[in-house]
Write a structure and sequence with these properties.
Layout: E1 2-4, E2 7-12, E3 17-21, E4 27-31, E5 37-42, E6 48-52, E7 57-61, E8 67-71, E9 87-92, E10 98-102, E11 109-112, E12 118-122
Antiparallel strand pairs: 1-2, 2-3, 3-4, 5-6, 6-7, 7-8, 9-10, 10-11, 11-12
């Protein structure tokens, strides 16, 4: 679930869709046909990012629910050949950096650039 400008965006995992709920409680289905959406984030431009655990992908939609981009497992060597990419949560930051919580990822948050290229892992180091 994500709240932006008094609108609640819900990743409805069981029904494989994204809902948009206004202040009056009216729910609108804006994206359907997903596999297992578990995380959602809406950026300043109202782009909707969805972490889909079942598809092992992050999707970017515009505010009208039209698919703009798909981010799959990074293929950069520094990401590692055995590193899992199972997105469960998503957030965006400055310069269109994506921060992905990955199931089974032990390196921290996965940072991707606007094109889906792996930047680094982000998190605290073990003591």
């Amino acid at each position: 679930m994500y709240i932006k400008d008094d609108i609640v965006y819900i990743a409805d995992t069981g029904n494989k869709r994204i809902l948009k709920v206004n202040q009056q409680g009216d729910a609108f289905e804006i994206i359907t046909g997903l596999n297992t959406p578990t995380g959602i984030h809406v950026d300043d431009d109202y782009n909707i990012y969805i972490a889909d655990k079942g598809d092992k992908a992050v999707y970017k939609y515009n505010e009208l629910g039209i698919l703009i981009d798909t981010f799959l497992r990074p293929n950069e060597a520094i990401f590692g050949t055995d590193s899992p990419f199972v997105p469960v949560k998503i957030a965006t930051g400055p310069r269109d950096v994506l921060y992905v919580v990955g199931e089974g990822s032990t390196g921290g948050l996965i940072q991707l650039n606007y094109a889906g290229e792996f930047l680094s892992f982000f998190g605290t180091n073990d003591t």
